[in-house]
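Forwarding these from the shared drive since the link keeps breaking.
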Amino acid sequence: MPTVTQKPPAKPALSGKAQDAWTNIEGRVEDVRRRHRMKFATTGLLLGLAVFAAAFLGFSLVDVLFKLSVGSRLFWLALALGGTVAVVIWSVVRPWRMLGGSTRVAREVETAYPELEDQLSTALEYGRDGGLAQATSSPELVGALLEQAQRRAKPLDFRRTVNWRAVSWALLVAFVVAAVVATYGASNPRLFGATVRRFLMPTASIPAPTLTVIEQLTPGGGEYPVETSVPVTAKLSGRLPESATLLVKFGIDPEAPWEHRLMERGEDGDYHVTLRRLLDDATFQVKAGDALSEPVTLKVYQEPQVDEFSLRLEHPAYTGKAPEVLPAGMGEVRALKGTRVTVRLLANTELGRADLAFDGGRKLVDVELQGRGAELTFEVAGDDRYQLLIEDTRGRVNRSPVSYRIQATEDQRPRVRIKKPARDMMVHREQAVEIEIEASDDVGLREIGIFHSLGVKEEKKMVRRFEPCPPQAMGRLKWELGNLGLKGGEVLAYYAYALDNDTLNGPKLAKSDIHFLTVYDEEEYDAPQDPQNQNQPTPESVRQLDKLIEIQKKLLQETFAMARLRNEAGEDPKARQEDAEAAAKRAEREKKRRRTGRAVPERPQDQGRGADPAGHPGNGSGRPGREARGRRARAAPAAARREGTRAYEGRRGEDGNGRRRAGRATAPSRPCRPRWKRCGISPRPAACSSPTRKATRASRWR
């Protein structure tokens, strides 16, 4: 049979005044109850925070002293949280439960105000439970009770029944703990921040707080060549000790022992020590005060080095020299411009790059890498210096490479001289002159020969051309003068030349000293002599003509020498200026010399043009023209015969200046008469010269 749910008895209806009284009483009691709850919550919150902060302070102290591990930090955090929860339960949950309902709160109010007796709690019970009022009393009596309890409680302040002393104590404790925490954070923010992070995040990798702080370690790692000394510097802050300790171990074995080395404090305030000549990887830590740095690893590697190298020189092709290999390790280069130099090197490691660093900033011609080896090629273009730069596959370079010198040599001009005849000669206009030329060059000779001229026009006569080109050579030429159409009294200038075999910059020309051949006419010398006038002096006109010829030769020689020097100097501006000054001085000297020969009439048509700009001999200023020289040469012997002039040969006679010379007089024969005419000797002689040059000048016009 189903159970019938019985409805609770209906609350008896109260009068309006009674209902208002009950509502007022219940509201005031509930307000007291809320205040108790607020007191419990505030007390619990303050005590919980104080406990948690106190746990943090204890953790910080222990962590600074003992550098807690992760497990210890987890324990401290759990302890702090557990203490906080316990305090909250003890100060909030337990009193909350013990507080009870409004009836119990009303009894506490009645305890505080005895004049209420039990009316307040009774009124709340009867007003809330209508069945109780109906069973034990009537609604009228309950209403009267409520109204009476309201009247008696109205002047009373129920809020004063709430005791806030526990809250005050909790606030004081929390304030003290908060003040300590604030002082700690303000006095040492670094330690405060570190301990807070380690306390709240116990599993995080956060360095332990220390009184001494290692701000910076130098170096912080890296790679170093073997046998390098590495200075270690520690920059500290906080509590600074007198010294620090460097803990170092070598190698990759984790069980290797740590070595202790003292780090002294320097004038800059940092702590220093040097790891000398590292041969293996090194790991170090710095211990200063209560601080210990993280391990730092230094990697040691084999520095790229050039173990061996050699140079191969390929000389310019025109030199004809075979390639030359210099001794190993010899880096100095002395070679002709245009020489191709190949550097072959072998390193101690695999190469990623190889180069030559030139002081002049030039670039390589070619680079070829072959594992540990390399070939680098460049061309000698001028004086310079270079260094061998190599780099391994990881970008490491060789330190302090040696600097080597490059000295570029120039292909020198050839040297040439006329070996035979060794001096100026007086020759017959149809004579054959034997000329011997000697030449040399630092590399090779291509051609030798002579240049000769009577006036402005210069003619070339090649003697020899060489293939292959020797560094030294001789050349002989039998020069037939009869083909030149010479006349008596003319002076033939000639010099030897030599060309080298420089095909890179062009052949260079060298010239010998200038030589002269003075031509006489056989017909003038065959004239009969007057034996009665053999002691007469040389006419003044002859002496003046000889003097002018000698001046002319000297001027030609000086002009030729200056032109040759200018050509060899490469037309240097300074050399041109010096040439101009020398030419002005020569012109002044020439004027003075002309004044010494006034007895010989000089006409403008008798003067030549002088040497050409290249220095080739021509009709210089003050020199008689070609036709005038011939006329004067033919006229001079006739004048000498008319005056009864006698010339002397040997140590007695008059020189070209009319001065008497002591000596034995010779026979009245012609001193320069061709020997083949006098003695019937054939063929023609090579030259005709007197024992002394001055005597020859004085007697050749006999």
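-- next protein --
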Amino acid sequence: MKRLLYVMFAMLLCTSFAFAQGSDSYKLTADKIYGVEGSYYTAEGQVTVIFRNTQVTADTVTYFPAMGIIEAMGNVNVTDETQNLNADRVTYDMTTEMGVIDNVTGVLNGEYFVCAQSVQKLGKEYYVMEGAVITTCEGPLPDWSFSFQRVRGELDGYLVGDHTTMNIKDMPLMYVPKFIYPLKVTRQTGFLIPDMGYSTDLGYHINENFFWAIDYDKDATIGASYFSERGVQMLGEFRYTGSKDNRIYLSADTIYDSESVVDASNRWEYITKASLSLPLSIEFIADSYSVSDNLFMRDFGAFSLYDSNENLENTFHQYYNLGIRTQWADWSIYYRDSYKYKDTDTGYTRTSIVQEPSVQVQKYNLPLKFLTADYHIAYDHVYYEEEQTFFTAPSVINKGDYQRIHGEASLYKSINADILNITPSITAAYTRWQSFSDPIVVEEEHGYWGSDVSRSGDAYSRFIPTVGVQVDMNEIFRSYSLANHGIINTFSYAYTSMLEQEGLPDLLIDDIIETRHEIAWTMTNYVRGEKWGAEVSMKQGVDINLDDIFLPMELKGYLYMPYFRSTTEAKVSLSSSELKTRSNDSLILLSNSSILTLDDAYRFYFKYTYDNMILNNYNASIELGANFKLWSNLELQYANIWRAEHNSISLSGFSPTDVRAGFIWHDQCWSLGLAYTTEKYMTVRETNREYRRDHTIELIFSLKGLGGSSVDVYNDNVVS
């Protein structure tokens, strides 16, 4: 709507501007031109006025130079590259830039049809229209239209319509006595389009949000959602963008859930994302995403102002960092809390790892005289807690804390040769754990190159060095008449001393340092034509420390050609059951996604995924889908997902879990459709773990030139 009305008023402004400048830059032709010099000039018979890219034709055009007024009468037409308007009469005052157009009809921007009894230009950018109708549908009786008894509009301001109706054919569908809509190109304060629907869990719901354009660099959204079965959810959002180094985003919503199935009735969600550059090279970073309980995302996540991207892992965090950058070191002190909810057969767990406080100093890509260096030193006070909540018993809590000091430094040098690039490196890592709330017992271990695990009182220290080298070969490239062919090879060697680390804390990412003696080779081989191509990459590693020395082979393939695209990824183990969790099958991972498109009217796709490392859940899925048009008006959509728990790759034993089917009817100026979706999932309720199924009906609609939307009009959530 904003785009349509803005273009309409902008085009009328251009028309008036053409006349205003006509006295010194127009070309006038007519069958007859006469008048009294200094008083008036009249052109009659096939009059044409050309100003820049605008052409005006009329039966008669009269110019009064003393008053600065131009009148065009009889079969008036105004045409340029963006408009084609017809009118009975046009009067324009070049001094005041005011004018009137009577009985105007025409097309704006190639798709907007408009007619009005009169259009008055009351200022440079202010207009009043009487008896106006706007639509994007052709024909004397459009499929839909907006009718206004009177419209007042200002470019980069507001449109205010009196007694406005939305019409389907000649039948009024919706009426409002006062219609207000922003015409501003910039963000504008106002109410957003409401959303409504029904769910068996939440009841009938309706949502309304208000957008507040505070300033050019900040805005906010506040709103509320009413659920007939659960209560009122309050929502708020704030955004500030001063520069790429100064950004703030805040979002929160809360509801008193009258039918809550979790312990808390006051349920909430808040998100903070901020990055501020302060004086003296000081930086502040905040990044948090928290919820009140394990089922909040399932119940209310879809209604949040924040796009959660369907946080199916139920993983949340809080992170606050205050730092200062210098030439040789970046200093910071921060707080981090990472926690996750996970469903179990008897309830759910909440696992939390808190670093409070944490102090670190680091620098990467630090240029020295002959080498480049990376280093990282950190002190952490780590709190950990795992809470198991049972359906029929109290929670069991496993928690504790300890202190940790970690330092890591690397030296490397890139050496360019004629056909390759060699980068040798050496890394040393030292970690000390101390002040355990619950004592741990770890055997001391001595490895090669000085690596060891040692104990001093209740503290444990670990030192591990790593040496390596990477060789990047120059690309082997040949150009042929039909295609280009290229091969890229990379070789790497890394040695981290063998060391027994069982029993050492491994909650933080720096704690996990795997021993290895590995040689790896990566090759990418591609062929690319004008409209087709294929690419295959392979990574193979050899770990000399293992009895079965081959690491899983990683394969990736990509094929594209007219009408068809396919992507395949696989990971294959060439060693024994140490790397296999379900069987002796060597395949660990396989995924394929293929799309076939015919004549832009038929689209078919196939997806297969098998992951041998997923335990106690579906590890294989097949998805089939299609989109195709019938008679160029009716578009059909279908998708079906089958899942299974397999010990090896197989196309049998799948059961349907998710289905989406629907249709959209596309007319010349509107689209309307329905989609049905069913989804099976596992969740934890009050007393047990159960499989449930969502049934959703979605209304899809759009109006040409105004955009479209979709609304979940019905949702049924039942035990499967």
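The two ends are 43 Å apart (CA to CA). The mean pLDDT is 84.

- D.
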